[in-house]
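Lab meeting, item 3. Inverse folding demo.
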């Protein structure tokens, strides 16, 4: 039981979660306890190593091969289609409710309408940009990443 308490305190000490009094008392304990001193050294090393680790990026060839598969392309397209369709239906409903329900003419109703209209403007802006770029970029089908 005492060892478990000290291990918990070790982690709190390493993560700097102790207040000043707890920290001083724990440092006093570490000076007298060889087991806790060794555990502190081990845990500190583990924290240092795990803190410096990074996830490696996949090579470009892996991503190119991933997008060659028809399932992966269809899956992403269907997901975006469903998301956008659902968002448009919900936004249309809330705009209808805000216009027809006098109870929504409050600050909350105004905020809802402004959020929905802002989302629609952003969506249409991105859609227009994508369509314009795809039409006018002659290299889009020839250049691979």
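The presenter then showed the designed sequence:
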């Amino acid at each position: 039981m005492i060892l478990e308490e000290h291990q918990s305190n070790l982690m709190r000490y390493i993560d700097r979660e102790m207040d000043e009094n707890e920290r001083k008392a724990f440092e006093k304990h570490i000076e007298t306890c060889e087991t806790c001193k060794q555990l502190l050294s081990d845990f500190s090393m583990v924290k240092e190593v795990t803190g410096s680790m990074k996830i490696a990026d996949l090579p470009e060839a892996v991503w190119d091969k991933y997008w060659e598969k028809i399932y992966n392309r269809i899956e992403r397209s269907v997901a975006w289609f469903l998301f956008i369709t659902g968002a448009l239906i919900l936004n249309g409903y809330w705009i209808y409710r805000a216009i027809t329900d006098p109870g929504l003419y409050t600050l909350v109703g105004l905020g809802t309408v402004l959020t929905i209209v802002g989302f629609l403007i952003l969506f249409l802006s991105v859609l227009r940009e994508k369509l314009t770029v795809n039409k006018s970029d002659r290299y889009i089908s020839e250049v691979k990443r």
